[in-house]
């Protein structure tokens, strides 16, 4: 491993891990963040109120049109059996549109939406709170994640378990039915579990969540913002409650909560696939550097339609981690300029279908070794990572 500039030895690594080490950014690095930034045209870092709010208007317009079309589903001329087909279609389409709005709120949290912090926070608060996201609380922990991506000690989300955390000798733990159950639970509850109990996050000694200003993931400076976020969320929840009283619980479920659950599913899928793969390294101690962590994320292709609906958050995620303040509408162009410099150090998977990638993720990415400064996901019974990597290449 020394010829790759890694301060580690290959003893103890599996065959696939030794192959993955070839794609680990050396330390010291052959290029710097400054080198990468110089390769990107300056206009890619320029924010535009017209373009940013234009995306908001387009997404809101689509959401309103789809919402109005949903009234046709309950029209007396529509047979009841057909409604059981049309409503799930509405849930899916509206959920994808809502996910795009969630991404725009996420951009506000990074400061990539506009040059004004006030505009960013007000817009982000409105967009995220409308989707029951604690904007400021999540903005803080997400910022910590970007500063410490793939650090075993300091990252705030998708921190891998070690073999000490799970029963690796349990023959049922890794069977297909159990894996399917895990996938189903995380798709339905993964996002709320992260917000309420910090699931997949850093293991703090006390109960940690995104609503308690005294949670371990917040410092004294964040407490006021967390309280404000909670109050705004309470206001939105009260408004939803009044709408339930006015139009009925079934109506609210159909037009809002079902699409909201689709958003939660997409958040888990998108973020899980961005940060979980057998080729993604995790670092301990001095082996972690900010640039190494920023490049330990995967660009994936969700298809032309979803790539655009999600504002390219999944196929330009490497650039997003390098320049999180860059406006999202320049990320595709910027990727073209940094990709040649990154070379093999840019992790991508543009071939695996989304559903297959999710299934493989819960098969291949089980735990990491409890020892070692550079570690990769392992699974107890089979070395799936090597075969999957060879197929991609």
UniProtKB/TrEMBL annotation:
GO MF entries: oxidoreductase activity
GO biological process, one term: lipid metabolic process
Record domain Fatty acid desaturase: where: 87-351
Membrane-spanning residues: 53-73, 85-106, 180-197
Taxonomic source organism: Hirondellea gigas
Keywords, sorted A to Z: Membrane, Transmembrane, Transmembrane helix
Protein name per its UniProtKB record: Delta(12)-fatty-acid desaturase
Residues spanning the signal sequence: none
Entry keyword annotation includes DNA damage: no
Keyword Transmembrane set for record: yes
Pfam family, one: FA_desaturase
InterPro entries: FA_desaturase_dom, Fatty_acid_desaturase
Recorded superkingdom: Eukaryota
